[in-house]
Amino acid sequence: MDAKGLMAELSDRISKTASAQAVFGEPVHNGENLIVPVARVSVRGGGGGGTG
User: Between 20 and 30 A from 5 (CA), which of 19, 29, 47, 49?
Assistant: First the structure.
């Protein structure tokens, strides 16, 4: 697979799995309290190529 195809595949996979449901959990009722689990997520990438 060439670099362009690889980047397209990675982009497609990330767009299908990166969602609010992956970061925010289901709210939990604890008596009169409502607990909403959250997280901070970041995605970074990089690449390179060449010869020699």
Answer: 19
Q: Give residue 17's pLDDT.
A: 77
Residue with tokens 């970041």: 42
In terms of residue numbers, what domain contains 25? 3-35
Q: Give the single-character DSSP code of 33.
A: E
CA separation for the pair 13, 45 (Å, rounded): 13
Q: With pLDDT > 90 as the criterion, what percentage of the chain qualifies?
A: 13
Q: Specify the pLDDT at position 31.
A: 94
- Centre a 10 Å sphere on the Cβ of residue 7 and count the other Cβ atoms it contains: 13
For the four alpha carbons of 10, 41, 34 and 30, in that order, the dihedral sign comes to positive
| Total count of domains within the chain | 1
